[in-house]
Automatic annotation (TrEMBL):
<keyword id="KW-1133">Transmembrane helix</keyword>
<dbReference type="GO" id="GO:0046872">
    <property type="term" value="F:metal ion binding"/>
</dbReference>
<keyword id="KW-0862">Zinc</keyword>
<keyword id="KW-0378">Hydrolase</keyword>
<protein>
    <submittedName>
        <fullName>Zn-dependent protease with chaperone function</fullName>
    </submittedName>
</protein>
<dbReference type="GO" id="GO:0004222">
    <property type="term" value="F:metalloendopeptidase activity"/>
</dbReference>
<keyword id="KW-0472">Membrane</keyword>
<keyword id="KW-0482">Metalloprotease</keyword>
<keyword id="KW-1003">Cell membrane</keyword>
<feature type="compositionally biased region" description="Basic and acidic residues">
    <location>
        <begin position="234"/>
        <end position="246"/>
    </location>
</feature>
<keyword id="KW-0479">Metal-binding</keyword>
<dbReference type="InterPro" id="IPR050083">
    <property type="entry name" value="HtpX_protease"/>
</dbReference>
<dbReference type="Pfam" id="PF01435">
    <property type="entry name" value="Peptidase_M48"/>
</dbReference>
<keyword id="KW-0645">Protease</keyword>
<keyword id="KW-0812">Transmembrane</keyword>
<feature type="region of interest" description="Disordered">
    <location>
        <begin position="234"/>
        <end position="259"/>
    </location>
</feature>
<dbReference type="InterPro" id="IPR001915">
    <property type="entry name" value="Peptidase_M48"/>
</dbReference>
């Protein structure tokens, strides 16, 4: 008995040719995605070369190492007037965490290590690719839809921009809670105490300038959960019953308000 052919031979070449032709038609989209990914990937190098960050003080470096973060992945920016901390890059292997001299003045070594743990978790737990992946997947899906359905596909893709914005906010907020939990596992109450101290100093976001509706809208669109919600989640994770009542504006990340 002769073997049955699996698939007629022209199918795969034809499908590949169609896919390549479609990809070529949308080269601007691929170029935009590539530029965005390369830009994020190179951000630590750009910051390091433009701002020449210093190393952590010895006590803070030791605390950071105890929290499980390589101290050589943390750079100190000379900004006495700003309380600043953020993660730059795509992954822990190539990314870095930057903090300001203002943050070092505001917190003790353990508090600095706790904030660094939060930021480093964004890199170690692949939060940056996840955040970037949501709009990239939407853009590719929109391109496919427009190719298949023409103008109707373009209109449908535009209509989905609002749900995309909501999904992006929810994903970003989940990554903040996940980074909080990771920092709390490594630093314990030091992380919660650092959040509370930064909030007391007014470094975790400002109150919205208008009444309740605008304040609620800004809070709903913020990529970061309100501070009260973050503290409540931390207390639930640790079984702690504490007072999480704080004055929330559009709350920021654990250091400067926009992570």
């Amino acid at each position: 008995m002769s073997p049955l052919p699996l698939v007629s031979s022209p199918v795969f070449p034809s499908s590949l040719s169609t896919a390549l032709s479609w990809a070529a038609d949308w080269w601007e989209l691929w170029a935009l995605i590539a530029v965005g990914l390369v830009g994020v990937r190179l951000t630590p190098v750009v910051v390091a070369r433009s701002e020449r960050p210093a190393g952590l003080p010895e006590d803070a470096a030791r605390a950071v190492e105890r929290a499980g973060v390589p101290a050589d992945r943390v750079g100190v920016l000379r900004r006495d007037g700003r309380v600043l901390a953020y993660a730059a890059g795509l992954t822990a292997g190539h990314g870095r965490v930057f903090v300001s001299t203002g943050l070092l003045r505001e917190l003790d070594a353990e508090g600095v290590a706790a904030v660094v743990s939060h930021e480093y978790a964004h890199l170690a737990r692949s939060h940056v690719p996840l955040r970037l992946g949501v709009p990239c997947a939407y853009a590719v899906a929109w391109a496919v839809d427009a190719t298949l359905f023409g103008r109707a596909g373009l209109v449908a893709g535009a209509a989905l921009a609002v749900p995309l914005a909501y999904l992006s906010v929810r994903v970003a907020r989940w990554t903040e809670h996940d980074a909080d939990a990771a920092a709390a596992r490594g630093a314990g109450d030091d992380f919660r105490d650092a959040l509370a101290r930064l909030a007391a100093g007014g470094h975790l976001g400002r109150t919205a300038p208008a009444g309740g509706r605008l304040r609620g809208l800004l809070a709903a669109l913020s990529m970061h959960p309100p501070l009260a919600e973050r503290l409540r989640r931390l207390d639930e994770d640790t079984g702690r019953s504490g007072d999480t009542r704080v004055a929330d504006g559009p709350a920021g990340s654990a250091a400067r308000g926009d992570d």
